[in-house]
Amino acid sequence: MATLFLMYGYPGSGKSTVARQLTAVNGFRRLSYDELRGRLWSDGDPHEVPGYQGIVIAALDYAAEQLLAAGVPVVYDVNNNQRQQRAAMGVLAERLQARVIVVWVQTPLAVARQRQSNRQLTENHRMTAAKYQHLVDTMEPPVQTETVIKINGQQSIDEQLAAFAQQWSRLI
Fold this sequence. Notes:
Order of helices and strands: EHEHHEHEHHEH
CATH topology: Rossmann fold
Strand order of the largest sheet: 2-3-1-4-5
CATH class: Alpha Beta
Structural class: alpha/beta
Strand content: 15-25%
Largest sheet: 5 strands, parallel
Radius of gyration: 16 Å
Number of domains: 1
Number of strands: 5
Low-confidence stretches: none
Distance between the termini: 9 Å
């Protein structure tokens, strides 16, 4: 059965790092909002294009649908921070007879905020303090009806992969 892994956590929690490692180790396919946005607007600022976020999400959703339909596990490396977003992806997965698992990278807010701040200095991850706080304030943690794998965002990658494997083995 194909699986759709939805990444969840604060900006700077380590979601993309975990997603890249899960993909490398397990042969999953990773769909990254940040990477696709960067490729589509490598020569300019996407903020100049009205609705650019919807364009990126639509492309990622289409790719996820095609991969899941082919039975390929997908790591959806997008801010899946609201239940409505996760529910919409759940509808897509259900239609394709795929399961949905939220991968919650749990990192203390202060650590995630500092990582995000450091990342802005080296990468194209512009985010104002107000935008960061808005994202944090609007996060909706997974509920009991959602299947969740919890990863400690402060552990080493090897420890994170081991924690993922242990929890994943209980679900399959």
